[in-house]
TrEMBL record:
It comes from Terrapene triunguis (Three-toed box turtle). The gene is PPP4R4. PANTHER family: PROTEIN PHOSPHATASE 4 REGULATORY SUBUNIT 4 PPP4R4, SERINE_THREONINE-PROTEIN PHOSPHATASE 4 REGULATORY SUBUNIT 4. HEAT repeats lie at residues 213-250, 252-290. Residues 692-729 form a coiled coil. This is Serine/threonine-protein phosphatase 4 regulatory subunit 4. Serine/threonine-protein phosphatase 4 (PP4) occurs in different assemblies of the catalytic and one or more regulatory subunits. Component of the PP4 complex PPP4C-PPP4R4. GO terms for molecular function: protein phosphatase regulator activity. Keywords: Coiled coil, Cytoplasm, Phosphoprotein, Repeat.
Amino acid sequence: VHPLIISSKMDFSQNNLFGYIEDLQELTIIERPVRRSLKTPEEIERLTVDEELNDIERAVYLLSSGQDIQGTSVVANLPVLMQQNPAETLRRVLPKIREVLHVAGVEMQLTAAVAFLTIQQEESVSIHTYSHSFLHIILQNLEHRDAGVSNAWLETLLAVIEVLPKETIRHEILNPLVSKAQLSQTLQSRLVSCKILGKLANKFETHIIKREILPLVKSLCQDVEYEVRSCMCRQLEHIAQGIGTELTKNVVLPELVELARDEGSSVRLAAFETLVNLLEMFDADDRSQTVLPLVKSFCEKSFKVDESILVSLSFHLGKLCNGLYGIFTPEQHLRFLEFYKKLCTLGLQQENGHNDNQIQLQTLEQEKKYISVRKNCAYNFPAMIVFVDPKNFHLELYSTFFCLCHDPEVPVRYTMAIGLYEVAKLLDSGVYVIHKELVTLLQDDSLEVLDALISHLPEILELMTTGGENSGSESKLLTVPDLIPALTTAEQRAATSLKWRTHEKLLQKYACLPHIISSDQIYYRFLHRMLTIIMTNNVLPVQKAAARTLCVYLRYNRKQEQRHEVIQKLIEQLGQGKSYWNRLRFLDTCEFIMELFSKSFFCKYFFLPVLELTHDPVANVRMKLCYLLPKVKSTLKVPTDKHLLQQLELCIRKLLCQEKDKDVLTIVKRTVLELDRMEISVDAFQKRFYENDLLDQEKEREEQLLLEMEQLEKEKQQNEGRSTSISDKIFEKKRKFFVFVGSCKEGKKSKLVRSQSFSTQALHPKYGNIDKCSNKSSATGYTSSIPGVGKGSMLPFSDDSFRTRSTNISGNAVFSSTAPLATSSRNTANSVDQKNNGTKDSHSRKMSL
């Protein structure tokens, strides 16, 4: 019953009120027949089954005297009965099902086909028993008058043929097929025979196929009905794979040539697609003398005579051009390329000026076809780059690439966005040519296009940054002026849409930006935006993605002042924020900090702010903190962090004594037991913690080295006259550091990558070595590359990719404690000034290692 819609202008005066009451009474009258349509006592009695019957007896009873829906339920439950009691099911239930299926409706027939297939897949009985009990029922229902039912039983039979013995197939299926495929049989029977023949071609030896199957195939290829000829034509691919190259050339190819000239358009289409799929089985002579003329004929007729083949031709054109590449003359090569270009713009321009009614009626039908053609051309674009050679891309295909990226239809641009990564890989050192189209797709009006593009955005940007996988010369990211606005625009559009998954995915992919653009550009254009998303967005996965990406930006930030500001905002605006939701996100951010940064960094800046949340007034915050405490404890080292350990124990005691919320108290008790079982690592290496300690030491060394390099860079800028000597000091310090890290990684080679920091210009992070770098006198720092990633490797930017990047110079130096940040007591052991404390602490870690 539809709800009564009350208009805003309804009059509730006394005169009109009774009219509304009458309308409500009419609604109650409408509901009365619904109540009366319930089952009568007689019907309920007829549907009731004795509860004392077992499963087999109940199934037999329902199949004998129950209604159709009850019988369908029994058939659907047949696989379970076969598992529980196969002997009784075969003896009592299956004969009843065979009787019922003769008069059963469509629903029961479809259910039985699925149930029989399930029994075979679950191997409830041996294949001999299955063929004896179930195969005859399947064959009897193959020619059901309903096409859907017939196809369902056919799918079951084709799956069963895979496991049947050869003798059973020959006697039960192949021998009856001779009569079933005759012209005197029904159309449905001949169509079924075609599909069965295609399946049987791989089950017998060549001489049996040649003697018993190929005559039937030839007969069905000459059938009077075009549906049969088309169906048999599509099975020729499977038959060719079964009979081998020689028989394919002598038997199958002539049939395909004849079918390609058939009067039925569906038959010609089937012949064309089969030819393309069998291209590899033909030798050069067959391709040049037989296949190529046919393909040329298809292409010529597709526009003027037979437009039905146009969509299929555009889909297979890439495979076709590369398959026939070796036999093309230069003129034919150019002709096929021009044909592809014509398809790429099909429907975008009027071929004549007529505007009569007939053309208007055809336009709607043709428009969908033309969109499919251009979409297929976009799908085949990487194959066409191979066809023309990537070196000729700019001359031959760039204009077409431009048109497809700016196509008015979303499916075309979506397909181009999906394939852009393949295009970039093929272009290699010439990838800079397509940077404008990358920006265009980033700014596309459709979020579907953006979602398709960002799937491989880190890899595309990496290729553009390095100038291709095999580029031997240095190149800079020329797209920065256009790329950064495009990236920010894409994020804002995703944020204002309702598709939060696209927004989350985009934020995750933006974690690659420290390897693409400079630290200052990230700081001013992206980092503060991530903090805003954490504080204002309403979708939790989006907030977490932004928090992780922010931590990555902080790790690779190159300026100490900027790092201090971000840490201060995280503590004040999230950790000490008024909203409990922000405080929960602060704990999420701290998890990412512990994952990406060294233990000393977390303890110095975030340990005490996290413990302060034990006094939070909101139970959910305290509960989340309790779950996090084991990870927090794992960041401590004794005896250096003994005081912090005491603070942690004190907070846990307070929670045990003062916590009033029973749920939080339960989690606190569980956490206490887990904390008691944990072992705290010590300053010196321990065998059981060796890998984790080594990774943490490397992170800490990177943080310390970045701070020292930044200090030397400042000295270099202040003493430009002595730049050479300062540079030598930088190179010597880095050389010693990288030699040390290389020995710790037990043979893992570390290359050097030019840093993108210390300036607002985006520099290209090209992999090199120290000898090459020492010749540079510019104000540029250096970082080590990711282990195992060379010029020809792709850089993974997944969520976990930054864990193993232990030899990168991270953007989280051991910050000077002069900033007004709440730091822990890790560096308060001596009463010296805080700056010297930081140096001594790092020095002690070097000595302990």
